[in-house]
Amino acid sequence: MSVAFLIEQLLNGVQFGVMLFLMAAGLTLVFGVMGLINLAHGSLFMLGAFFCSWIAGITGSFWLGLGGGFLAAAAAGALIEMLVIRRLYDRDHLDQVLATFALILIFSELVRWVFGDQPLYLDIPPLLSGALPLPGGGGYPVYRFAIILAGLATALGLYLLIAKTRLGMRIRAGESDREMIGALGVDIRTLYTAVFALGAALAGFAGGMVGALQSVQVGMGEPVLILAFVVIVIGGIGSVKGALIGSVLVGLTDTLGRVFLPQVFKLVLPASEATAVGSALASVAIYLLMAVILAWRPKGLFPVNA
Amino acid sequence: MTEPLLELKKLSKAFGAVKASDAVDLTLFPGEIHALIGPNGAGKSTLIAQVTGWMKPDAGEVRLLGRDASHLSVAARAKLGLGRSFQVSSLAQGFSALANVMLALQARDGGAFRFWAPLRGNAALREEALGVLARIGLADRADLPVSALSHGERRLLEMALALALRPKLLLLDEPMAGLGPEGTRNLTAFLRELKNEAGILLIEHDMDAVFALADRISVLVYGRVIASGTADEIRQSAAVREAYLGDALC
Amino acid sequence: MPAFLASVSSREGMVNAVLAGLLLAAPLIAFTLDEPFYISLATRVAILALAGVGLNLALGYGGMVSFGHAAFFGLGGYVAGIAAFHAFDGSDFIVWPLTLGGTDQLLIIWPLTVLVVAVVAFAIGVISLRTSGVYFIMITLAFAQMIYYLAISIPTYGGEDGLAIYLRNQLPLGDSNDPLTFFFVCYGMLLLALFVSSRLVASPFGVALQCARMNEVRLATMGIAPFPVKLTAFVISGVITGIAGALFADLNGFVGPSMLSWHRSGEIMIFVILGGVGRLFGPLAGAALFILLESLIGGMTDRWQLFLGAILLGVVLFARGGLIGLLAGRARHD
Question: What is the reported pTM?
Fold first, then answer.
């Protein structure tokens, strides 16, 4: 096993993790600020991917598509926040789960209606095609590298937003005290819509970028959604820092598990069985990780008092 | 000398730099009411949590009926004979007053792992539950859901639930709060009777009630017991006047 | 009226009796009209209602919002499927430390389902119940996903494609291949589960469980530790849903990862909510309504999920208390 291979797999894990972070950040913000659990977050990811590839298909520009996906998801987020989500803040988690589950059904069927049953495809833009050389030989796709950078930049941006800006101050106040922020004269309804739309936009952004790596189809948001939930549960629901660390942890565990677990089992088992056992274990590795972390710390790595 | 029902030995608990309980020693003997008073933030809630088992002390010991109970769960301490009432009403809201008491009786007699015969069908338990409710003056409210009871009635029901367990000692957390003058009078009379059945650790803000009822009083300030003695001794203690009563009496 | 129907308000008891009667009448009428499809539809309702009855125990009475009951449903299905698979090709399930072959006898498969699901539900419950609130929802979901991916990654039992059960598993008396007989089996199982649930809920255990939902602190203060009560209820709940899964696999002659998917968990939850949370017959009302809507709207348009979503959204936002609540009024205080 070469060094280049190891670096490549590490980068793959980080890239996957960073993409999960874009999803998890929105989920955890929405939960932290509004106390809402939103299953329809995966639908916003899917919307981002569909709009990105649709617009890119029409205009021929990946970048317009990416911007379009971002905006479409933000708009859809703001819309459902005002129509549905807003009524759920004071409800228990059961109602939130069901209502947002209903939204998934509606979104999936609407997208199928509008875009058809066939998957869409999105090409990597010329600017980001090709590969970067890795130490020890081989190369790493520029596009995946760009995703890592974009994700890290987003994390930095979110940090600056929450720590340094007025909006961030309001978000932090909202986390600690809803009534207080109302008393300060902040229009809490607008703030909530803005936070929800921001989370939605990040999901749409992630969907657009991932659209160039996999086929764009209905249901693509759901596996990512569940992984994003695993991430925020591990990180501590409501904590953006926890979401970042949890994302990378999950991304690395999943990617490296799939590559190395079968190899590890080959040391003790015959090859065919080792592959079977190894890949079975790899497919559940992140859930085991979560179970262990929660058994140890029932409120995640960075608990938030919500 | 009789064995104390409750004995706290050098109980300590800190949150960061704040010492919420600072080497607290305290005893409660059968037949007495021991009142614990102190200004807000003195560490009363933390102390209650350690006595009942919701919180583990950093150091020191909680002894119940002569046994080291420091590592027992909330439920296990209740089983030993520690009853309590809550500052904020804490009842099963969806159940009737009667069902609340019957569950408590069931908990005392056999626990929860009876899967078949309906609880409501247990005539003996029902009789006893009605008796407990009658004793506290709630007999005619037995079939109302808790949500339909008044604030004062809920406080009484809390007391009934504690009594149903036939506790050997009771921890009452501000039982007078929100009761009004007549309710306070009635409850004071009731507690004076009750202490012969179960020793009472009374946490209370109503100083008239405390001085009328308590056989001994301990004063908690910044996590430390700064004085402990009879009502007269506490009234005369300079330290208490300075730290606590001084503000309250002005 | 049987005692367990009367354990709720008389109006709710009536509604329950009518529901049970309708479900019994539907396949009989279908049989006389020679419409086997509707017998199978009614069987489906009975089985899915059974799955809901299981979840209702945890979710409705115990307040444990499990988003992973598909794990138990699917496991039950896989027990039936794997037993039949080995019985069909004569191979052994395990050879060490003892040799265990397959079987097509339902009277062996069902107890086996109970055992397997109970063990798994216990393991999941022990870890999950350390958490609460949204963490509990998420961790039960994640455990179900774990079993889902495990099922996909085992090629012996069909992996992604699932397993076909070529011959429906057998009963000692009566022919399980006969649609009406199989309906009666499922219907009987549903009534049994409803009866057991009604006894459980009214028993000291059930009252303690509901107290744990309403106020855990109170329960502990009475000297009853909430954790073992909730864990026991969670296991019983999982087992009932698991039996439903075993029946479902036999009904369809197939078990696959879709029985373990989180959509399935959501669906079982929907039965409970549509019918009315914590109402004894809620899951039956919910499952019946769901299947009826599915076949009605599904017959008219391919976009049935769109309407299902809209209806569900409407129920959650505007019709709390579900169908039973609508028909029988507010729940009685006990």
Answer: 0.90
Q: Is A111 on the interface with C (CB under 8 A)?
A: no
Q: Do C153 and A222 touch (CB under 8 A)?
A: no
The number of distinct structural domains making up chain C is 1
Q: pLDDT per residue over B87-113, tens digit each?
A: 777 788 888 999 999 999 998 887 888
- Residues from chain A contacting residue C139 (CB–CB below 8 Å): 233, 290-291, 294
SS3 A39: coil
* Number of Cβ within a 10 Å radius of residue A261: 20
Residue C253, domain extent: 3-328
Half-sphere exposure of A211 (CA within 13 A, CB side): 35
Name all contacts of A210-214 with Cβ < 8 Å and 24+ positions apart. A210/A19, A210/A45, A210/A49, A211/A48, A211/A49, A211/A52, A211/A53, A211/A69, A211/A120, A211/A122, A212/A62, A212/A122, A212/A123, A212/A124, A212/A125, A212/A143, A213/A143, A213/A144
- Whether the predicted pLDDT of A258 surpasses 80: yes
Name the C residues in 195-214 with CB < 8 Å from any B CB. Answer: 199-200, 202-211, 214
Is residue C333 assigned to a domain?
no
Does residue C256 sit within a domain?
yes
CATH architecture of B1-81+167-212+232-250: 3-Layer(aba) Sandwich (3.40)
Domain extent listing, chain B: 1-81+167-212+232-250, 93-165
Q: Which helix (H) or strand (E) holds B225?
A: strand B224-229
Q: Domain with C184 in it: what CATH number?
A: 1.10.3470
C316 touches chain A (CB under 8 A): yes
Phi and psi of C132, rounded to 5°?
-150, 175
pLDDT over 90 percentage in chain A: 49
What's the pLDDT score for residue A175? 62
For chain C, give the number of residues.
334
**C334 within some domain:** no
Q: Which two tokens stand for residue C44?
A: 């489906």
